[in-house]
Input
Amino acid sequence: MNDVNSTPVISSPFVAESLSVAQVMRTVIYALIPGILIYIGLFGWGVLINIFIASVSAIIFEWVMLILRDKQVRVFLFDGSAILTAILLALAIPPSVPWWIPVVGSFFAIVVAKHLYGGIGYNTFNPAMAAYAILLISFPLELSLWNAPLDQVNQSLSFIDSIKFSFFQNLPTSVGFDSMTSATILDYVRTEVGLGKNIDVISQSPIFGYISGSGYEWVSTGFLLGGIWLIYRKIISWHIPVAMLIAIICVSAISYLINSDIYTNPLVHLFGGATILGAFFIATDPITASTTPLGRIIYGAGIGVITFSIRAWGGYPDGVAFAVLLMGLTVPLLDYYTAPKVYGARSSYDKK
Amino acid sequence: MIKLWKFKGGIKLTGFKSLSKSSEIKKTPVPEKIILPLRQHIGEIVEPAVDVGDKVYKGQLIAESSSFISAPVHASSSGTVIDIDKYPIPHQSGILERCIVIKPDGLDEWEPNVKANLNPESLTADEMRNRIRQAGIVGLGGAVFPSAAKLKPTRTIDTLVINGVECEPYITCDDALMRSRAEDIIRGLLLLRKLLQPIDCIIAVEDNKPEAIQALNTSLEKLKSDGIGSVNTIRVVAVPTVFPTGGEKQLIKVLTGKEVPQNGLPYEVGIVCLNVGTTAAVFDALYMGKPLVSRIMTVTGPKVKKPANFEVLIGTPIEHVLAAAGGVTSENHTLIMGGPMMGIPLPHSNIPVVKASNCILVESAEKQSKATAMPCIRCGLCATVCPMNLLPQQLYWHSRGKAFDKLVHYNLSDCIECGCCSVVCPSKIPLVHYFRFAKTEKIEHEVKAKFADQSRIRTKKREARLERIKQEKEEIKAKRKLERQRKKLAGVKNDVIDNIKVG
Output
């Protein structure tokens, strides 16, 4: 099958009022900016460096794959999808990682998860999440060292120091790597509950902020604002994020009500980890998500439930990536069985 | 305030209506040549009732059919029939269709039998229906379904809807008609009401046409003061400007909240819906005795000199109509019959105006040629805007794959080809084009499948027949064998007896 119709069709409609794929992708990237800025402000330059390395390598991999697959580079290279994938991947990994982590991640996302499955529009799995899952399994150590908020660190890294750390793993003599990092709230709760501690005690830790992880709760708020803007702009529909967030709130609230000694309150789950980013920016990736209204609600709710299950009872502190990948498998079935009733299907001859 | 419903989907479009918007309707002069296609309606094609060389009057019936779903064709000006052959007609695939060609004599002389009828209210329902049929009236909104067939419902009608929505951008012919002939439309409606006996009559107009709404209301007031009190039950309803509210099924949903059953017709839920142009044609046929020989048409677009509305004789070549509008401003243009959303691109301007032609849009040629289709990113916007609640993106996959069973599952045949999905697609995929193509492919596939089925049945029957003949032959053979043996045996016996006798 030919991807690009080089000879345009002369057929109605003769109206051009829509956004292009590139404009859609660009708008999603703009919506990520508030969250990214807060992230940089509270956690340092590492995240920006990761975004840069991931984006550049993603573009290079995209370009190579387009040439190898004999596709029109001009049409596809700057459709924005590769950069968006790279940014989401960079946001999924910890800010202070060696440079080759985002590069390897981009390789898996663009080359394996995207192009080997047929390129934009054809990939079965969310490229960013597939790459993150592979990184998490392959390099568990690098992927588990998260930065502590700058206000809890004695000395923060300058921009140059951050670059040096990324490429050479050099730190200024005054800074110890351990002092820079801390557990994330989900990881911390998981470990401490595993040791038999009570949530009331655990939440005295400085890792806890106002409602969820200290610092990270603000980053989530930034992504929440961007996500709401995307719904307002009609770039994404409300179904997936709302279903996913409500599902997480419901299951975490039930668990919390049953045993508040070992389960945290829903707000921790909502604003901790990748919940908000996942709900508005990752689960809504159109290519791998369900397309019908009911299908999207089930898809979103499924991601919510699986995410919570992995966090509460699974082997990883967070589960958004695995939940997105697992629910991605159900999409063909969801789309098939949730097709809306067409106009007039419920109506019948009305004898009078 | 009357309660209105909403149909799912639809889009807001820039109207560009002011280009051609004016209540003045100019008449185009009688052209050099009139080409009248024999299929200008849905249903049975009509057969010529005249021969080459015949002299015809304006309004003379020149082709008809005895089929219920069909509409006769009339000469739109007086002159001589010079040819009956295949000519290009306005059609998506540019096919040729049988046409009667008339060389007008320029006198534009009406057929002597065409006389005004001052009291059409006295006609019975059957007489009215018959006259509407004989006048060749079809749905002038674009669907060209024979109106007389619509006016014979098999159940009582609750609501008669007169459709003056005109939701396509650029087109203003119905608007101009409502503004200039509001009273005729209402009088036509009164006759239709007598025919159908509905409880409720609604004239629906999009709220972007306040002058038309005003004109209709003024005429209602005037008729009331003239003593026609029965106009009281007619309501003029302004509907929101959302494309495609003018679609029959969408309009019915908006006005009544009811949905026309899938594969069904509006009368099944007690509604009959006719276009304002059709209603005016009913007025012309019943009051004036005139058959449908002309229609109002918008000539507009960025590449036409003087956009306006014209009353055009059916069969007039489009180049003649374009000349009346001052011609085109640039050679680099696309000719579209109909609106920008659902119109048909025309290969050239030597194609006649037909009963369905509501607009000639002269669009700049660049409008479409730049768009390059990207792969579908499954964003689902197409499904959000689909006014029939279909899943265009699934239909697209299965159209490409020619998966006909899947196309049935996803209700391809319910697609009204409104174009909303194509317009919003960020990948710029010409979805409707795929669906039109798939529809014809599907029909072809079904015809082939039917043929294959028949062949299979024939082969089976033939095999059974051959088998039967073979068996019969064998039976005969066996019988003969048996007989021979018996004879032989008998012979032997006789021999034995003979021998004994001899012995």
